Predict the structure.
Amino acid sequence: MVQSKSIVLLLSLLAFVPFCMSHKIKGGGGGYLYPQFYDKSCPKAQEIVKSVVAKAVSRDPRMAASLLRLHFHDCFVKGCDASILLDNAGNIISEKGSNPNRNSARGFEVIDEIKSALEQVCPQTVSCADVMALSARDSTVIAGGPSWVVPLGRRDARGASLSGSNQNIPAPNNTFQTIFTKFNLKGLDIVDLVALSGSHTIGFSRCTSFKQRLYNQTGNGKPDFTLDQSYAAQLRSRCPKSGGDQNLFTLDYVSPFKFDNSYFKNLLAFKGLLNSDEVLVTKNQESLQLVKQYAQNNQLFFQQFAKSMVKMGNISPLTGFRGEIRKNCRMINS
Ligand code: HEM
């Protein structure tokens, strides 16, 4: 009798567990991500990240875009585990040398600066993966975009994956279907894809990332006719058929440093810079409808962007005893 009573009690307690955990995100390793993770162990953590990011963006306004992208390129490879920050060493082949990152990913020194400020106040407490998630949020806010509460408690990987970086991160000349599949494999849907692509409202691209569209879109020596032709002509003047590969172009020619919905307005005018931007309006009805909604309603874009960033930031985190808290974001602890 006593035994059956305690079983009933246990079962009813267990029934409440999902409610208690509903604001927490389960990570691999049995732990959870939650916003208050450092409240006791490093109460100044968020303030420190924010102030270093603000300083870095005031030195170099493009840095907001670069830090936002860094988090994306980290999360799509083995989850948000700071694997992208590791330099070549021993068995580690750095993701910094992958096709999407080489001569392109930037902001590593800012992450170092944040990490060393954190190490002074709370040594080996705040993970590099969390530093990236927080800096992506702070960068968005500084550029005029929405804010969100960042679930925390990610731990840092003890390895990198060059092949994962090459394969999982969408390329600008991938088809709509390929890009969509790469997002799906990370648990992200078409709404996330369109909203997160809205990141291209800030920052820059090199000529090499969209040159194909200007001269030889399908291999027959013809440009991409879905691109507005006067915009294309402007682009050609600084992105010639040969040379100029590293020349920089704004992803959103209207307001390159302001986080707003002009990216979506540009897409509807066929002035999206990358082929991967343009396919959102030319290859799929559902994504076209979403682009129209975000172009019309900035608030709606901001709300969805914030939700999708939290979702992206929750991709397979290392928690509990998995991974480690690196002392230096560029190398694993010895
Ligand atoms: C949908 C698939 C995506 C593709 C194919 C793509 C591709 C690219 C490419 C080719 C560049 C220019 C890189 C260069 O030429 O150096 C770029 C820049 C950028 N991307 Fe994406 N991207 C995608 C999604 C995202 C997402 C999901 C985010 C963030 C959540 C993001 C954030 C950025 C930012 C902020 C920049 C500018 C970075 C800077 O100025 O340093 N992108 N992207």
Strands lie at 25-26, 32-33, 204-206, 248-250.
